[in-house]
Amino acid sequence: QGAMRGKFVAVLLVGMVMSEPRRVILRRYEESLQISGSALSLVGGVETLLLDEGEKFDVEYVNQLHENTIVHAHGLNPASYKTGQDGFPLVEDWLIPADRAKHVVFDINQTGTFFMHSHYGMQHAKGLALPIIIRERNFPSSLGIVHGHLNDAEDFILMLEDWCPYTMMRTSDEKCSLNSPDSALAQMKLMWTSVPKLIQASFQTCEAPVDESHVKYERHTINRKQEFQTEMSTAETYARLRLINGGSMTNYRIHCPKGSKIVQVDGNWVVPYSCDKLWISVGQRYDLLVQKSTEITLLAIAESFNRVPNMNDVAIFRALFANSTSPRTSLPLALNATGRADDELDFRLRRVQEAPMDYSGAENISIRLSGKHGYMSINGSSLIPPGPSDPDFTCVGEPRIFRLQRGKKYCFTLVNSNGDSHSFHMHGHDFVTLETSDGEIPYMHGLNSPVFRDTVLVPGGNCARRKICFEASNPGGGVWPFHCHMSFHLSAGMLLLLAYEDSVKSDTNLIDVCNHKSIQFWNKAKPYFAGGLLAMIFLFSVYLAFQRKGERETLYVGLNEGGRIAKGRKNSRHRKPNKPHEVFTGQKSNQSQKSREERDELITGHLPGLRSMV
Ligand SMILES: [Cu+2]
Fold first, then answer.
1. Cα(214) to centroid(ligand 1), Å
2. Where is region (Disordered) located (predicted)?
3. Do the Cβ atoms of 129 and 245 come closer than 8 Å?
4. pLDDT of residue 531
5. Could you report the predicted ipTM of this complex, rounded to two decimals?
6. Ligand 1 center to residue 416 CA distance, Å?
7. What is the CATH code of the structural domain delimited by 20-136?
8. Intrachain domains 20-136 and 363-514+579-605 with the same fold
9. Which residues neighbour 541 within 8 Å (Cβ) at sequence distance 6 or greater?
10. Cα(35) to centroid of ligand 1, in Å?
11. Minimal CA–CA distance to 48: which of 40, 56, 39?
């Protein structure tokens, strides 16, 4: 009986140890921000949050950044969001406060390659990112011969990043225009004084394509090194290379190892497809499978459109056997321009799992992407998420919130007026691309279905068009961001919130982002109502006095609902509090039946604040 009890205690202890959250430390390290901790695993020599299929996401974030933060698990679709599982700063209480810890738990029913990164201000651009791997227990049998190869494969991680030594002190230089992302963002916001003109100028144009080479990085890295070298074991015959574009602004041209096959994109199985070269845009992932040889080499070159890339634009990955004595592949001496990033490969890849796919009854929505001089918008309006320097949302124009009905299908036609390419990421959902500027993509059904992704490249220039479709099928409902994943474009307002109708009905605060400040203030003032009221009257009279003096403290110039210019720190003063946003609901369009001109009409029709101006 004693032995039995001993066994029971042992099982209980193991159970307690097993159920402990993985503790990760968010900290400043040398010239960057980092995620580290003993709960992490080394995969191919790279620190990773390694989970097994069916395991919960159960992480305790310890914030040693000395400022607030929040961490998003990119590509994971939690079925609950109510206490901030998605890691997006919609509600102030969801933040991980400075010098405190926060426990985040949710179920995962996905496998593959993901990463976590800060979703607060420019922290991701300073390096706050870490790979996540969810290992399969079984592989789909429909993968054919590759099924066996995956069982006999060693894992490697290749996280691509664009890197500047971040310090508060440095100013921008030729080599590295972004080594102080905060001041770069502040500079950008100063240009916002002419936003209304820019909306008019950029909203209905079709700019020529440009790349992001005006954003200069000191170097581009794989696993934080320009030349990353790791050891292969002789135990497995194959290598599974897990590519993550964890950079903040750069799309990469990948030169795949000889004989490699793409097996997953964004955590979704694809019919194995031979890879010679591929584009990976910001936030995307690709898993490649390749038979081990003396050396596995992969090159990544930063997108270079109008220029010849130099040695700082290239990063190399090498995997070698421990006793290898053969000469190693070195960085190439000369590089050709990569040309523009494109998404052609997406349309050749096919999903493995057979699932019915019919979006013929979907609601079609036009989404125009535009922007200039550091101002970025969706349908002419901007929503800037909070960060350490400004804990509130900043709103310019309307609309920014799109309401979803549970179980309904939606198709967003993204039209890029902008010369920049954008890498659009949807939280909480995966989607398919069904149409490009050239029309419908001739996918076949069944096994030849288009692949699901969570991040898609929208090429820059010439009003490139992509129609993406998804089902509002997140079992937890909720509010999910849809945004450009390029750090500066997001911070310049290229963000839309997708809100399930039934979730926001029960909690309107969730989407009242533009009145966030007043709600917070009211909640805090409630117990001291009388005092609070007096303070407000006092503040208002001070405000009036300042107004009379003609002093301005203008962060941006926005538009109010009448289309007139509204100046101020926030446009919440121009709106009634707690008024739910009614957005897009009155207008529907059917892309296949309407001409481009008609579509443009519909787009402007969505914008009550703009109609009188354009
Ligand atoms: Cu963008």
1. 14
2. 566-600
3. no
4. 64
5. 0.86
6. 10
7. 2.60.40.420
8. yes
9. none
10. 25
11. 40
Could you tell me where the beta strands, DSSP code E, fall in 430-577? 432-436, 439-440, 455-458, 464-471, 479-484, 495-500, 556-559, 565-568
* CA distance linking residue 21 with residue 53, whole number of Å: 16
Place 193 in a pLDDT band, splitting at 50, 70 and 90.
Answer: low
CA of 557 to the centre of ligand 1 (A): 22
Whether 230 has a pLDDT exceeding 90, the answer reads: yes
Q: Give 128 Cα–ligand 1 centroid separation in angstroms.
A: 19
Distance (angstroms) between ligand 1 centre and the Cα of 385 equals: 14
Torsion, Cα of 567, 569, 574, 575 (10° steps): 150
Task: Please give the CATH topology (third level) of the domain spanning 363-514+579-605.
Answer: Immunoglobulin-like (2.60.40)
Q: Which tens digits make up the pLDDT trace of 515-560? A: 644 434 434 444 555 666 676 777 777 777 666 543 322 222 222 2
pLDDT tens for each residue of 354-377: 666 789 899 999 999 988 766 788
State the distance from the centre of ligand 1 to the C-alpha of 410, rounded, in angstroms.
22
Choose among 472, 492, 356: nearest CA to 420: 492
How far is ligand 1, taken at its centre, from the CA of residue 277, in Å?
23
Give the pLDDT band (50/70/90) at residue 32: confident
How remote is the CA of residue 460 from the centroid of ligand 1, in Å? Answer: 9
Q: What is the CA(421)–ligand 1 centre distance, in A?
A: 6
CATH architecture group of domain 219-341: Sandwich (2.60)
Ligand 1 center to residue 457 CA distance, Å?
A: 9
Q: Domain residue spans in the chain?
A: 20-136, 219-341, 363-514+579-605
Alpha-carbon distance values, 168 to 173, 181, 182, 364, 387 (Å): 14, 9, 8, 45, 16
Distance from Cα 383 to the centre of ligand 1, integer Å: 13
